[in-house]
Amino acid sequence: MQFFRKRYILLFFQLLISSVIFAQAKTARPGSFTLPPYTKFTLSNGLTVYLMEQHEVPVIHVSALFPAGAIQDEKKAGLASLTADALLFGTKSYTKSQIEEQMDFLGASVNTYAAQEYAAVQVSFMATHQDKVLPILKEIMVNPVFTEEEFVKKQKRLAVELDQQRESPREVIGTYFNSFLYGDHPYGNPLSGTKATVSALSVADAKDFYSTYYTPNGSAIALVGDFKTKDMRSKLEKLLKDWKKKENTAIKAKEVPLPLYQKNRVLLVNKDNATETTFYIGAPGISRNNPDYVAIQVINTVLGGRFTSWLNDELRVNSGLTYGARSSFTPLKTNGSFTISTFTKTATTTEAIDLALEVVNRLHSKGIDEETLSSAKNYIKGQFPPRFETSGDLASLLTSMFWYTFDESYINTFQQKVDELTTAKAKEIITRYFPKENLQFVLIGKASEIQDKVKKYGEITVKQITADEF
Amino acid sequence: MRITLVLLMLIGTRLLAQPKAADVKTFTLNNQMKIMVLEDHSIPNANMYLFWKVGSRNEYPGITGLSHFFEHMMFNGAKKYGPKMFDQTMEAKGGSNNAYTTENVTVYTDWFPSSSLETMFDLEADRIKDLNFDDKMIESERGVVLSERSTGLENSNFRLVHEMVKASAFMAHPYRWSVIGYESDIKNWSKADLQQYFKTYYAPNNCVAVIVGDVQTDNVLALAKKYFEPIPAQAPPRPVHTEEPPQNGEKRVFVQKDVTTPNVLVAYHVPQTQSDDYYALELLNTILSSGNSSRLYKELVDKKQLATEVFSYFPQSIDPNLFYIYAVSSKDTTSTELEQAIFTILDEVAEKGVTENEIQKAKNQKLMEFYQEMETINGKANNIGTYEIFFGDYKKLYEAPAQYNKVTAATIQEVAKKYFKKPNRTVGIIQKNVEQ
């Protein structure tokens, strides 16, 4: 529900200021927004490298991406995620606490995580510290040792965290939804695993996973920030020259077909002490390389992608049923999902669901008029540049370009593609891509009060939020 | 300034070439509204942040949460732009917005392509001058805010325990209630309360407007004169004079909830942002919980494995407020063991102080945070406004390094000794069975 943090209560966003000097304003790029120039090359070990200079603040951001996401977990749910965490548990040259002490002392930060399809290492640091930080980054990527003691500590903590997450419906509903929608397809794998699967993992599993999937060939690294491209290129070539290519590691998502449901289905997750129902209504969506991706985003802006979107307008503004309602497409490499998400107090559960369905039906029956379309186009164009404002944003964009095989034309032709969308084309897009039947409902709430009422939406399955499964 | 030397060692001479305070242009309109402008042409976008000096500290029992509810009502229609039209007009012009309310301030944030600047002035001026309270909108907005309140409590244990600890730590000062307010007040305040609030607090003389981005300063000033200056000033609101009496004994509060493991929140009374101890406390906050090598994380989560997470929180504040430490127990750790471990760490700082290495680390971490804030036009706008409100003058931003540099191991030890005392603390605990 982060999109509509609209009018929220501020708790933690106090600013921490330590210096007095404002950063220098960059040169204006009047008119349309284009991606700053960058250099792309491949090292002899197969690693794809992107370098982009940005000199507004004396900082460098790194984003590295490996084909090591949860889709590779198979039966060992949580392995990709734990392996990514464990990259920081010590390397050949640094212990875990040396990495932490050194990085913290420099004011640098490092974050490693696995997503559904890939794993990432993200590092930020002051440009003057590059010769101290880059060798640590290299060790994390190339020489992790997976210390047993640290692995077991994390494993134990994770077992408690997995229970703690279940105290917050918002934390777990996405996992239930992916599992319900994708079934046995690897996109349905629960990213953090379950208590049972996580406790069965061993250091040997992580080492195997690492050596299979963390290979320079098939991976990419992007550096964006305050450096000279030529110097950084030779620095990286030297730094990573010993990282060996691995042959024949054909890595791809297992060829499991997506389940195709020919009916509405409901997963009701019972939470005894719930005072509200948190729900997703969804269906299969699109893959990231869909040629209509931009047009779909424009239409989704109208349905549930901004404050005045039809979903938020009906469920929040007109009826006061919720603090926020939205819809979104989550495109992945070979597939993706579409979801409507919101929450409402237990007593108004079906009222809110009915209203959401009514809005979707209206999109199909009435379509979008010229004025609404034009407003959505202006909105999506106007909000586009700030999404790529920081070096960190740009570094993530570059590794996304690598993973999803697109290039700067996505940025540079974005406005034009938005402008090209007509109401006639919009109608086609709606019919083709916006689901209105065979919907998959996931509801987390108090089953004793809503189970009978929500049966009407489809074939119902009931689970307990406290059970160790998704 | 000695800090210059430290910065030079850290990051070379580059900083010295950066713009100075003079790059922020400030103007005061005839109605005493303050306008601050910083040009930044890095993206074809700009923002407008309006800081209003009103928050939950200005409320009283019966209207708790009204500042926040009012913030919502600011989007629900005025004279020229009726209900829904503020958002519709802004979004059709490529803009988006948000707003937040704290104990101290209410802040409205507009983000837009710079070509839409004048529309933003028109929209803001309309609601500042002629806000309208539509009965239907008031009622649906009550539902929205009740949903916001309940979803916070449903999804966050911190929300729950934070509310309880504040209510206990403060007996007199309005910081005792949460920003969102009591459920019964949300259900019962009236249109007249809203009208009174509008007249009292939403006067131009109670506002600081910050505009940053791809704009021309002269143009911004001309628009401010055209749209904002005709709005009449009002008598300044009465000051909040209630002072919290000293706390002379530990307070404890328990909440029963079906949690996996106990949650512990410890809060100590500390002075306001404009006090001499602010910078030492802020560095101590960083030393305690910023990064995995910080004292609390390293000891509680990593070494002793008593907690699955921990953080400290020291909010900027107009009046004396609280310094918080929050931790969630690991499996088989009782709340007593966890809180004792927290006290041991705090006592150690009070008894032995911190190391030079830790102080330098904290300064480096803050410098990096600063750069990341200043990388965006929104970070810049928020910094300027926050300094203007909480430190009394945005130029204090330029004194901050010298202030941080004055902080020594001895001053950190002093503030730890002064504030981290048992009689000065409130402890809140959420657990399954409060009798345990």
TrEMBL record, chain A:
<dbReference type="InterPro" id="IPR050361">
    <property type="entry name" value="MPP/UQCRC_Complex"/>
</dbReference>
<protein>
    <submittedName>
        <fullName>Pitrilysin family protein</fullName>
    </submittedName>
</protein>
<dbReference type="InterPro" id="IPR011249">
    <property type="entry name" value="Metalloenz_LuxS/M16"/>
</dbReference>
<dbReference type="InterPro" id="IPR007863">
    <property type="entry name" value="Peptidase_M16_C"/>
</dbReference>
<dbReference type="InterPro" id="IPR011765">
    <property type="entry name" value="Pept_M16_N"/>
</dbReference>
<dbReference type="Pfam" id="PF05193">
    <property type="entry name" value="Peptidase_M16_C"/>
</dbReference>
<feature type="signal peptide">
    <location>
        <begin position="1"/>
        <end position="23"/>
    </location>
</feature>
<feature type="domain" description="Peptidase M16 C-terminal">
    <location>
        <begin position="201"/>
        <end position="378"/>
    </location>
</feature>
<dbReference type="Pfam" id="PF00675">
    <property type="entry name" value="Peptidase_M16"/>
</dbReference>
<feature type="domain" description="Peptidase M16 N-terminal">
    <location>
        <begin position="55"/>
        <end position="194"/>
    </location>
</feature>
<keyword id="KW-0732">Signal</keyword>
UniProtKB/TrEMBL annotation, chain B:
<dbReference type="InterPro" id="IPR007863">
    <property type="entry name" value="Peptidase_M16_C"/>
</dbReference>
<dbReference type="Pfam" id="PF05193">
    <property type="entry name" value="Peptidase_M16_C"/>
</dbReference>
<dbReference type="InterPro" id="IPR011765">
    <property type="entry name" value="Pept_M16_N"/>
</dbReference>
<feature type="domain" description="Peptidase M16 N-terminal">
    <location>
        <begin position="37"/>
        <end position="178"/>
    </location>
</feature>
<feature type="signal peptide">
    <location>
        <begin position="1"/>
        <end position="17"/>
    </location>
</feature>
<dbReference type="Pfam" id="PF00675">
    <property type="entry name" value="Peptidase_M16"/>
</dbReference>
<dbReference type="InterPro" id="IPR050361">
    <property type="entry name" value="MPP/UQCRC_Complex"/>
</dbReference>
<dbReference type="InterPro" id="IPR011249">
    <property type="entry name" value="Metalloenz_LuxS/M16"/>
</dbReference>
<comment type="similarity">
    <text>Belongs to the peptidase M16 family.</text>
</comment>
<feature type="domain" description="Peptidase M16 C-terminal">
    <location>
        <begin position="189"/>
        <end position="365"/>
    </location>
</feature>
<keyword id="KW-0732">Signal</keyword>
<protein>
    <submittedName>
        <fullName>Pitrilysin family protein</fullName>
    </submittedName>
</protein>
